[in-house]
Specification:
This protein is globular. It has nine helices and no strands. It starts with a helix and ends with a helix. By secondary structure, the protein is mainly α.
């Protein structure tokens, strides 16, 4: 169990550091029903990660670790492919990052978030967790490692739950700040939003490349062991 957690907690941290979802929940918290909408957004995020992880666990559930205690070969191949994809996308993002961060702009769809009903907020959170180009590969890689670890089903579910909790910290911090400080949190959250919006592309590019490199290395290690 400890070895599995050591393998996936770094990936969970990569999911947690997600500027756009953090900006999205800050915008949601600024809506007239911020408390309700923030909780709905957080629920959608957790459900998205959990559902994606559960699917991978179910698909890989019949595959055990190798006789030497190493992950199965399919896990190595999957991590290799995901790592290459993340690295290439990270390089592409870096090449197209704004040269002047003061000119950085958020996606146009974010301007409409404050008019979203709860159902649409939930779906948005699902998309930003399970459908995100960074978060989805990292979640898939983590679930693949867990599913091939040879752990009992209960421990696999527990490991996946820990992954989801750590991966949600980035969203939970603004939510907790808002719930505790309420109106006094507006200035603090506004500053976080502005900083994340300005540096989103550069942060994402670095994260894509770093975690892509990690997955690439992990994949090579599994396939050559």
């Amino acid at each position: 169990m400890g070895q599995v957690l050591g393998d996936v907690l770094g990936l969970a941290a990569g999911v947690a550091v997600s500027p756009l979802p953090i900006v999205a929940i800050i915008i949601v918290l600024a809506t007239p029903h911020g408390r309700r909408n923030g909780l709905v957004f957080a629920a959608g995020w957790v459900v998205g990660l959990s559902a994606l992880g559960a699917v991978v666990l179910a698909i890989g559930g019949g595959e055990d670790a190798s006789g030497q205690g190493q992950p199965a070969d399919w896990v190595g191949a999957l991590k290799l492919a995901l790592g290459l994809a993340l690295m290439l996308f990270g390089l592409r993002l870096w090449r197209h990052r704004p040269t002047d961060v003061t000119q950085a702009r958020l996606p146009k769809w974010m301007a409409a978030i404050d008019r979203f009903p709860p159902g649409k907020i939930f779906l948005l959170a699902l998309l930003l967790s399970a459908g995100n180009l960074k978060n989805a590969p990292l979640t898939i890689a983590a679930a693949a490692s867990i599913s091939s670890s040879g752990l009992p089903v209960g421990q696999q579910i527990g490991a996946m739950a820990i992954f989801v909790v750590i991966a949600s910290v980035g969203l939970l911090v603004p939510l907790v700040v808002f719930l505790v400080l309420s109106e006094r949190a507006a200035t603090m959250l506004g500053n976080w939003k502005e900083w994340a919006a300005r540096h989103n592309v550069a942060i994402m590019a670095v994260l894509f490349f770093v975690f892509g490199l990690k997955l690439l290395g992990d994949g090579i290690d599994v396939l050559t062991s």
